[in-house]
Every structure is written in C-alpha cells, then in structure tokens.
C-alpha cells in the first residue's frame, strides 16, 4: 500500500521506516559518525551528489532520515531537515533563506529567545526586522517593505495562545513576494497543518509535543525540496546543527502516539481552562477553546483541536503568581512544555525574562501571568494542585 493513501495515525506509526537486512520491527538506531563506501568511485559519487546514500552523520544518517520523512509526511511537506534544537531550526531557516539587506516581519507574540535570536544574532549580519501585533493584519501589511523576504509567526503563540489566520497571512505574503514561516510547536500536525493553509515553511521544537515526554532536544524544518531540501539543508550540512540518531529515534517513538496524546492534552486543557475561568482569584484565562478567547472562531476553523497550553493572569501580580507556583506539589516548575507531566512557569521571569519591560508589555507578558502546559494526569488532580495556591489568595 502506498503511504500517500495512509491516514494520519498510520503515517505517524509507519512512514519513513525502511527495514535493514536484519528485519528489525522497530526502527534501528545508527550511532555512527561515518559510513563506509565500497570503492573510491562510490565515495566520489556520494560526495558529488550523483549517487544517493549515507556519507557522514552530520548530514546523512538513516535514523534521522526516518524521522525527517515521517514528519514531512505528517505535515504534508516535500522535505524535512532535522536539527539539534527548535532554536537551531529557526536559525537554519534564517541562515538558509536570508542575505544582507533582507527584511523580516515577525510577530511580537513569539518565544522570548526567538525575539533575541533575530535581534541580537541575525540582526548583526545586515538583516532588518519589524515586529507587529500577531492578529493585526493591517499592521502586517503596513510593515512590509520591498525587501521583505520572510514573515514569521507562532500560532497559537507563546504564551497567550493568540491565533492568526494562516491562509490570509500567507496570501498577503505571497502578494508581496515574501514567504510565510509558521512555528507549529503548540499544535503539531495532529491539530494544524500550516502548509495546507498556504504557509511555505513550518518549524518545530521537537523537544515539545513531538517527543511528548521531555526526553530529548531536537528541532525540524518542513517545506519544499528547493528551500528546505536544498537551502536549509545546506546550512545543516555546513553548519552542523545536527540531530543525533538517538534523539531521532526518541522522536520517532513520540510521533507514534502523537495523535492520541494531543487529543488527551486538548481534553484536559479545556476542562482546566473552564475551571480557571470560574475561579475568583483569576483575572483572565487565555485558551483558544474558550468562547471568551478573541480568536475562538478562527481556532475552530483552522485547527482540529485547541491544544494543551493554558495561560492565565492571577490577581495580585508577580507576588501572587509566584505564590501559586510555589504552592504546587505535583506540577513541575519548569519552562519546558508539551510533556506528559503538567508543567507551570512564570513567563515574565523565565521564558520571556530577557526581554525589556517595553517588549514584555508589547507582547502581553503581565507580571501575574502563568503558563500551564497541561499534561496527561487526571485533570482533577491538576486542579487540586493549582487550588492550593489559588484558594489561598
């Protein structure tokens, strides 16, 4: 059966795996730095690109290739490049597609490190950046310049789960000769496929939901054969931000249960968000599954689920927020997300802590804001743990 006929759940389990002569059922791990050639001529052909095959594990490894092909199939992309981390995936896109004199428009509602990567590192090499409100389409259009090469968004965004209309933004980008890059970390292809909506490139921190158990670092870029398979791959081959075979194997195992896990995360998150919205100590809850969310209707339209991230503002500012965090006994106090274990963090002093006060204000990072990555425990136990601090307020 051709894998193009397979449903999502089947692709997540079967796509990309080519068994060796040993006949292994689970994907093999190839922990080797290099590969042996049958002759000098074959070595020359492989290095010259006239014969496909493994060369050196920095840029060719069977286990990593299995993961790349599987994720590309899930996202509906032609090509995937796996990287050492989610941030290196974004870096590879910027290095592979930008040059001196180019301009990028980026949403203010992105992971704090993404903002700093663009401003403080990529910006040093003659690339200009404009930051706009994620949901303000007029601001996006106004920010476009003749030299705008890329538009970059997270949707849903970290940590307020704001959502932009991907198809509308992609159409805007293409009318101006630009590309749209979407960080699909919060939804994964199980809930949202940006390429189907017109986006050109998708990036992931595989560390999050693609793994699902907080075991390994990794990233990925998915798109077409020219930009991703050639330009971004060229950065990886020469720059070496390489995913290890062992981590690729972990992510392969994570993908097998992705669909089931995301459904469970969504179910728990919605119940928690509804409970939080009714709590007197909460000023506001941010979750796309709530009717009170500004983009609730859009989320219903372009996502098949609302995700597992719930953010909320505690009355009383940072002191009250920290009190809630410190009162928890089960939740993990960590900035990671997408884990089977529920995690909680205070964005203003962790994930977005290096931003200036002005940048925090523009991104909506309030002093009383908490972000919960809702895990797979009983939602009643998650509520009881948060209630320790919230009820005391």
Automatic annotation (TrEMBL):
Pathway listed for it is:
Amino-acid biosynthesis; L-methionine biosynthesis via de novo pathway; L-homocysteine from O-succinyl-L-homoserine: step 1/1
Task: List N6-(pyridoxal phosphate)lysine occurrences by residue.
Answer: 208
* Enzyme Commission number, as recorded: 2.5.1.-
A Gene Ontology molecular function term for this protein is: carbon-sulfur lyase activity
* CDD domains linked: CGS_like
Per UniProt, the enzyme's principal EC class comes to transferase
Q: Name one Pfam family in it.
A: Cys_Met_Meta_PP
**For this protein, what reaction is catalysed?**
O-succinyl-L-homoserine + hydrogen sulfide = L-homocysteine + succinate
Superkingdom is Bacteria
**Where would you find the membrane-spanning parts of this chain?**
none
Alphabetical GO CC annotations of the entry are:
cytoplasm
Q: Which cofactor does it need?
A: pyridoxal 5'-phosphate
GO biological process, alphabetically ordered: 'de novo' L-methionine biosynthetic process; homocysteine biosynthetic process; transsulfuration
Cytoplasm is among the record's keywords: no
* Keywords carried by this UniProt record: Amino-acid biosynthesis, Lyase, Methionine biosynthesis, Pyridoxal phosphate, Transferase
The record's family statement is:
Belongs to the trans-sulfuration enzymes family. MetZ subfamily.
User: Subunit comment for this entry?
Assistant: Homotetramer.
Describe the function of this protein.
Answer: Catalyzes the formation of L-homocysteine from O-succinyl-L-homoserine (OSHS) and hydrogen sulfide.
Q: What is this protein called?
A: O-succinylhomoserine sulfhydrylase
Q: What is the lineage of its organism?
A: Bacteria, Pseudomonadati, Pseudomonadota, Gammaproteobacteria, Thiotrichales
From the UniProt record, report the name of the gene that encodes this protein.
Answer: metZ
């Amino acid at each position: 059966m051709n894998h193009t006929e397979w449903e999502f759940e089947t692709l997540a389990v079967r796509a990309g795996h080519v068994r060796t002569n040993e006949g292994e059922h689970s994907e093999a791990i190839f922990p080797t730095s290099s590969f042996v050639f049958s002759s000098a001529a074959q070595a020359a052909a492989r290095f010259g690109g006239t014969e496909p095959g493994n060369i050196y594990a920095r840029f060719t490894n069977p286990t990593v290739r299995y993961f790349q092909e599987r994720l590309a199939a899930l996202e509906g992309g032609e090509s995937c490049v796996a990287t050492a981390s989610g941030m290196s995936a974004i870096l590879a896109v910027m290095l592979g597609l930008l040059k001196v004199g180019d301009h990028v428009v980026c949403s203010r509602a992105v992971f704090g490190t993404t903002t700093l990567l663009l401003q403080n590192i990529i910006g040093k090499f003659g690339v200009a950046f404009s930051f706009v409100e994620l949901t303000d389409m007029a601001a996006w259009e106004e920010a476009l310049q003749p030299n705008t090469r890329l538009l970059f968004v997270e949707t849903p965004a970290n940590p307020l789960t704001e959502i932009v209309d991907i198809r509308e933004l992609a159409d805007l980008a293409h009318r101006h000769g630009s590309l749209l890059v979407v960080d699909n970390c919060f939804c994964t292809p199980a809930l949202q496929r940006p390429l189907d909506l017109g986006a050109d490139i998708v990036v992931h921190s595989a560390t999050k939901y693609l793994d699902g158990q907080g075991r390994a670092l990794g990233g990925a870029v998915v798109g077409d054969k020219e930009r991703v398979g050639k330009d971004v791959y060229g950065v990886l081959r020469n720059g070496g931000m390489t995913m290890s075979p062992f981590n690729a194997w972990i992510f392969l195992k994570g993908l097998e249960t992705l669909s089931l896990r995301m459904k469970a995360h969504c179910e728990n998150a919605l119940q928690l968000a509804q409970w939080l919205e009714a709590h007197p100590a909460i000023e506001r809850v941010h979750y796309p599954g709530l009717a009170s969310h500004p983009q609730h209707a859009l989320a219903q339209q372009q996502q098949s689920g609302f995700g597992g991230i719930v953010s909320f503002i505690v009355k009383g500012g940072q002191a009250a927020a920290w009190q809630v965090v410190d009162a928890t006994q089960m939740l993990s106090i960590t900035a990671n997300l997408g884990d089977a274990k529920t995690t909680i963090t205070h964005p203003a002093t962790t994930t977005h802590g290096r931003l200036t006060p002005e940048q925090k204000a523009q991104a909506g990072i309030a002093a009383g804001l908490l972000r919960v990555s809702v895990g797979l425990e009983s939602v009643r136990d998650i509520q009881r743990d948060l209630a320790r601090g919230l009820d005391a307020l």
